[in-house]
UniProtKB/TrEMBL annotation:
Lineage top rank: taxon: Bacteria
CDD domains documented for this protein: PBP2_LTTR_substrate
Matches recorded under Gene3D superfamilies: 3.40.190.290, Winged helix-like DNA-binding domain superfamily/Winged helix DNA-binding domain
Entry GO MF terms: DNA-binding transcription factor activity; transcription cis-regulatory region binding
Protein name in the entry: LysR family transcriptional regulator
Residue ranges of domain HTH lysR-type in the record: 1-58
Family affiliation: Belongs to the LysR transcriptional regulatory family.
Keyword annotations from UniProtKB, A to Z: DNA-binding, Transcription, Transcription regulation
Amino acid sequence: MDFRSLEIFYWASQLESFSKAAERMNTTQPAVSQRIAALEAELHCRLFERSSRSISLTEKGRVLVDYAERFLRLRSSMLDAMASPSAVSGLVRLGVSETIVQTWLARFMERVHATYPNIIIDITVDITPVMRAALLKGELDLAFLLGPMPEADLANVKLCDYPLRFVAAPALDVGTEPLSNRDLLKHPIITYPKSTYPYTYLREVLSIPDLGAPRIFSNSSVSTIVRMTLDRIGMSVIPPAVVAEELAAGKLKVVETELDLPPLSFSASYPMALGGGLAALLATLALEVAREGMAPGIQEP
């Protein structure tokens, strides 16, 4: 019995799937099946009940999970104390909000490569609700998203806040500033998807009984939101940090309003299983990068 087999067994039990465990461990499903079969042969007992669609732990399997987790936690603590960063290796499936992609993700990746050269990162760019579900299903190991996540089995490291502002092309006649809530209803508002905080907040505060609901154009692509704003389709609600170059070049401007918008607050979230492992290391590194050289429009939490 070795740590690799115990780790594969542990993740198969947590994810309730040999195929998901294989993805998590960067191996193949046949390799996972062989490791589990070898463990069962060595321990002279069945660890999983198998069906055509799912697996579940046997009574002996539940006993082994407890021991496996303790072994793996101790091994992780030992490596943290003894190993050099260059000796740390593995695959991390990282989910990232596009706002982070547009600001400091490149610096984070450079830092990871310099500090942990043997860590492989598989990046997925998506919206917070999708990444939250993927974390809970074990399909992501770490995510930089709107947070913190409320689930008790997810750890959260607060990274940074992005102030939100109304932004428009200078050629768009928005009226006399600062704009009132009624003034804001005269133009379409372009922002993040319906399932995210900016959309739901704007929908709530700008719904005026005698005027109706605001016209909000939602989009999951930040670059598309910026393009639509440049094309004068409407005003956008986004962090100025995302359009710093366009603001500096005079292609866009911040529109003063009477409405104060709460900031976007981003966290690094990951499952707390086994103390977080590589995800915990990278979350700490992300915090360092997020706080270094803060660009205009980004605030330290």
